[in-house]
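Translate sequence into structure tokens.
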Amino acid sequence: MSAVHHSGALPREPEPEHGIHGTQEIPNQPGIRLDETPVIGRGQELDRIVARLGAVRDGRLAMIALAGEAGIGKTLLMHTVSERARQEGFLVVWARMLEGDWQPSYHAWAEILQQAMIELDWPRPGDDPPEWAQTLLPIAPLLTQLYPHLSPVANLGVHEERFRLPDAIVRCLDDLSRRQPLLIALDDLQWSDPGSLRVLLHLGRSSRPAALMVLTAYRDDYVDRSGPLVDALSQIRREARFEEIALPGLSPGEVEGLMRSIGGDPVPAPVVKLVSEATHGNPFFVHEITRHLIEEDRLPDDSAGAGPADMAELSIPESLRQVVDHRLARLSASAQRMLRLAAVCTDGFDFPMLRALTSLEEDELLDAIDEALAARLIAPTGSDVERYDFQHALVRRALYDGWSPSRRIRLHRALATSLEQVHRDARHLYAPALAVHYHISASVPGAGAGVPYALA
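Result follows.
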């Protein structure tokens, strides 16, 4: 599947009355529009980035990477910074990496350079070609139009290309930034090709003064731990001009502020607590749940009823199901099976329970757990290192709702049986969970086995 691709300078929009939002829809987050989504809970991060714009204007190159899970607000913060930079006289150019191995090397940088050249109207026909033009001819068609008689560098081998192309791109960016301070917003870096990452490394090591800020963002829940981005980040973190900012989830107070901005009224504390815990403060999840509650007329104001009381009453909008399905699609079949089956566990799950429930071999299950942990879909819980739970209750609920009612009932019975087998000598400690699972699967023969647990 290909990610939505957007490049080029952002349209020049007036600043809204209550913050800087823009008016376009946020890519990869259908239904969320920048004109109705305020930047909440990102004041410190915004101030840190904006503070560096002044130094950048004076020729001190800056590189900033925003890291966080999908939906945490990286793109919205990048748009906000872009608007501030534009107000301070920067030329802003956007590019988005494409998901998949088919994307051409350097494609994002090629589009960034071409767009900046068009916006700055430089170089011009008749000018002597810059020293880097010949090297960039293969990736910058505009240069071919400006200098039709210029030929590409002949026989540029693989190893030579790995140095000369990134170096030429950096020199071109330096020249462009001398004409106007430049902000490059490069989104979805987790899908970057190795060539484009080499450009960032060259920028980080460049000693040339440049009025240039490169603002990137990547999903740390999608990063391949053995992939090129991890290796590139380990090198670029050593450079003084590089700064990495991890975006956490919103606090309960910030969740309430976001929900109120969407619904227009104060939200009862129990509903805020439920949504905050279910989403871990992920702004996209909060936004979609709030919109869904409004559409179902289940988001009361502070003077009305309390609304949904627990996750069982909180239905999951289709937009969130699509996000969960997309995240699962990147995992192996074993990891997907483990997570979908584990969704019937309402209070976490341990390794022996997963082994009994999934019927996976030990090594296969260990690999599946490692995948789910790396994808930030589950996390260890409590002092028991063998016990896990879903990172977001909404993810568990979305997977749970994906089963048919008949399948769910039988999975609850299978889980009850697994609990009895795994914890045979300590079943009394699991009486509440066993009573619940037997009760939900009461329509399946043998439900009477759950009566002692219910009495206990």
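Note: The two ends are 51 Å apart (CA to CA).
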